Amino acid sequence: MKNFKYHLLAILILGLVFYSGVAWGKYTSKPLSPDKGTRSFLQQLANPKEVFSGDPEAEKPKKVRFDIFWNVWKKVDLEYVDQKTVKNTQKRVYGAVKGMVAALGDPYSVFFDPEESKIFTTELDGKFTGIGAELTIKDGVLTVVAPIDGMPAQKAGLLAGDKIIKIDGKLTTNITLSEAVKKIRGEKGTKVVLTVLHKGAEKPEDIEIVRDEIDIKSVEYEKKDDSIAYIRIKGFMEDTADEFREVIPKILKDKPKGIILDVRSNPGGSLTVAENIISKFVNKGEVILWERDKNGRETAHYAKGKALFNDLPVVVLIDGGSASASEILAGALRDIREAMLVGEKTFGKGSVQAFERLKDGSSLKITVAKWLTPSKQSIDKVGIKPTVEVKLTLDDIKKRNDKQLQRALEELKKMIATRKAD
């Protein structure tokens, strides 16, 4: 009888273990639904009505297994060694969304968490603390699009096209753009050391840059000899259109015979601002660019307002740091006004990004279209070639020997003389 009781107890224990294992197996194989906050956040990004409420498989895109995501999420919850990190569920969601956008393979499509979003929107205003350079990921390498004229990066010797190999001694391999910006930004007066490889150089060079307040005055005007107006545009920021309007009375008062527009090392910015400035040089109603969407549909953008300088010969200065909106301006004036382009081939960013702020303070910048010049030439990853090529050597830059501007002045004077002869 005593042995029978022991046998019965053993059977009950084995049964309990068996059924517990079955229950645990069902639990671990079932995808977890996210908590309320996570579900709400993901819904505002993707907005499938029922994907993350109730049945996580409902209304999902075809051939996409969301259960894999939640099974991995659960594995991290149950097994990851640092449980303090695991508990920061919002950070994990941001990381997942960043990965989703990064999987597009497009360096211009980026998800920003709230902290990064604040930095990015401040940069659009043209006021922030850092080194003053536009960066991108090109061919998998952190690359300088353009150092902003007069800012710490340019003064220290950073050049358009430089490849940044290290930041403060740490390799930039597989770094994201937002991570790079975080590392390079910092308080005014502090230093950052960038290890860069100049175009054509055999060995990298360490460049120490002292961070400063970056308050960009994006438009400069100067009257050159022989009544030539020289207009330097450093970027197309939110206030660039206002700054351009401010110099218009000075230009008109000087009654120029020709205009040089300098968009070298101008990384771009607002498309609307670029269109506003282009409209001062071409007649109202002219097509100044085409926008091609994901379906191949093309939409024309037209010049608006009064063209104040449409009867003057124009030369546009460009280089490898001229990107995006700068290329739009150069391409439009070349195609419509037959403006001469002097300098070097542009960067080759021919895509349009939409920027959307999300409810929690994060934001999404995503490529929604490609743009074409008025003659429907695409420059994405190709760039715009100059009419007259003039290259600056490293020695020219260090000695401030601006051969490109000199040549632009020479060519513009020839154009003015030809008009007089006609």
Summarize this, please?
This protein folds into 3 domains: about 1-100, no CATH class; about 125-215, Pdz3 Domain; about 220-420, 2-enoyl-CoA Hydratase, Chain A, domain 1, CATH 3.90.226.10.
Question: How would you characterize this protein structure?
Answer:
- There is one protein chain.
- The protein has 422 residues and is of the alpha+beta class.
- It folds into three domains: 2-102, no CATH class; 127-215, Pdz3 Domain (Roll); 219-421, 2-enoyl-CoA Hydratase, Chain A, domain 1 (Alpha-Beta Complex), CATH 3.90.226.
- The protein has helices spanning 2-29, 36-46, 66-79, 83-86, 89-102, 114-124, 152-156, 177-184, 240-254, 271-278, 325-337, 394-399, 403-421, and strands at residues 110-112, 127-130, 133-138, 141-147, 163-167, 170-171, 191-197, 205-210, 212-215, 219-224, 228-233, 258-262, 287-292, 298-302, 314-318, 340-343, 351-357, 363-372, 388-389.
- Strands 10-11-12-15-16-19 form a six-stranded mixed beta sheet, sandwiched between helices. Strands 1, 13, 14, 17 and 18 form a five-stranded antiparallel beta sheet that branches. The protein has a four-stranded antiparallel beta sheet with strand order 6-5-7-8.
- Helix 10 packs parallel to helix 11 (325-337).
- The protein is globular, with a radius of gyration of 28 Å.
- The N and C termini lie far apart (125 Å).
